[in-house]
């Protein structure tokens, strides 16, 4: 089958109706603009010929019923199919409380967006002729009721069965947590590891064995494409934090049955009442990331004193915003070694985080096909 389709990805919407807004003086994202930025992106997508839209989690700020209802109602108005999964913010508690819905309630809000035939938090569906989406839930609760980023045993067994039964279909996987490291040492970093699936290696083993090559994630609020063998983890930054990005992707099959994924990204620079949105949220991230950087510098493996770390913060003020935008290049001569080497490793060697053309391996084979080219930044056609 000659498979050709175009779709968009918007991640970490954190939709927040005004009456559900709660004070978050240290958060790096501006949920106050969640609805106008979402509307701006939808207006742009209306000009494209999309086959479907994917939303890989954190649809709401904190699992509020009103926000889930608003998202579902807005998605019903779109002219193309939409498929969602829960993020950690969508199901923050196992049981309903005064603020958030309970974990079991999530599928009920999104019957028309993947959950029509299941009360489980994961599903599979043919979303285009010859194309199968496997939508996974990475939010689990441990024995103490704490939320953790894990695919539980029942879901993993279900996934293995689905992969074994897939025939003559191309498979795309969508999951909230990252499955491949998007920054150096993410699996070991005390702050970074919470964004990556705890049993990612097990999941990757199953996907690799089935020839799955495209995994779409969110959660980390950065623009980044990571590769492990034939598998690409394409994570999309948050709608409510700098640089307010979204992606449009085009899958093409040529006359020789070679398959290519074209990845293009755009960003929202302004919305009503926020004419300098990009500048504002970049400064917000620069200012509020200081606490994160201070924590990083004073814990293992660096273990700097607070006084030493504070002296270095001015040199790292723009670090996280630059990294979040994708395609970062870092030159930090004012940092002492080995800190300088560590932070400069966050540079994107391939410069493909926002725009890339990925040549995909033949299905169910394991030959590495590197990037063909990564053009400079340009907006997708509108």
UniProtKB/TrEMBL annotation:
It comes from the Bacteria. Pfam families: Metallophos (PF00149). Belongs to the cyclic nucleotide phosphodiesterase class-III family. This is Metallophosphoesterase. InterPro entries: Calcineurin-like_PHP (IPR004843), CNP_phosphodiesterase-III (IPR050884), Metallo-depent_PP-like (IPR029052), Pesterase_cyn (IPR011239). The lineage of its organism: Bacteria, Bacillati, Cyanobacteriota, Cyanophyceae, Leptolyngbyales. Residues 6-222 form the Calcineurin-like phosphoesterase domain. The keyword Heme does not apply. The keyword Ligase does not apply. Keywords: Hydrolase, Iron, Metal-binding. One of its GO terms (molecular function) is metal ion binding.
């Amino acid at each position: 089958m000659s498979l050709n389709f175009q779709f968009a990805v918007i991640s970490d919407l954190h939709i927040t109706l005004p009456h559900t807004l709660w004070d978050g003086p240290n958060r790096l994202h501006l949920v106050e603009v969640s609805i106008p930025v979402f509307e701006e992106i939808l207006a742009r997508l209306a000009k494209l010929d999309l086959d479907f839209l994917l939303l890989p989690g954190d649809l709401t700020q904190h699992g509020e019923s009103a926000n889930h209802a608003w998202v579902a109602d807005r998605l019903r108005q779109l002219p193309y199919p939409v498929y969602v999964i829960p993020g950690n913010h969508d199901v923050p508690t196992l049981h309903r409380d005064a603020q958030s819905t309970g974990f079991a309630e999530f599928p009920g809000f999104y019957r028309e967006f993947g959950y029509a035939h299941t009360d489980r938090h994961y599903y599979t569906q043919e979303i285009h002729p010859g194309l199968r989406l496997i939508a996974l839930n990475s939010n689990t609760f441990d024995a103490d009721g704490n939320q953790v980023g894990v695919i539980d045993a029942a879901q993993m067994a279900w996934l293995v069965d689905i992969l074994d039964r897939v025939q003559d279909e191309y498979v795309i996987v969508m999951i909230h947590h990252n499955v491949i490291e998007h920054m150096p040492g993410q699996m070991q970093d005390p702050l970074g590891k919470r964004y990556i699936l705890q049993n990612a290696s097990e999941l990757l083993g199953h996907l690799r064995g089935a020839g799955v090559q495209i995994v779409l994630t969110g959660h980390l609020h950065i623009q980044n494409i990571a590769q492990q063998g034939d598998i690409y983890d394409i994570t999309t930054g948050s709608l409510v934090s700098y640089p307010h990005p979204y992606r449009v992707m085009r899958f093409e099959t040529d006359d020789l049955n070679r398959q290519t994924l074209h990845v293009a990204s755009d960003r929202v620079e302004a919305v009503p009442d926020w004419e300098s949105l990009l500048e504002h949220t970049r400064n917000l991230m620069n200012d509020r990331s200081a606490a994160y950087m201070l924590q990083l510098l004073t814990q293992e493996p660096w273990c700097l004193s607070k006084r030493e770390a504070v002296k270095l913060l001015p040199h790292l003020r723009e670090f996280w915003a630059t990294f979040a935008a994708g395609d970062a290049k870092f030159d930090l001569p004012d940092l002492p070694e080995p800190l300088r080497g560590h932070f400069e490793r966050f540079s994107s060697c391939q410069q493909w985080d926002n725009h890339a053309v990925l040549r995909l391996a033949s299905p169910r084979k394991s030959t590495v096909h590197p990037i063909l080219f990564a053009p400079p930044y340009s907006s997708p056609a509108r």
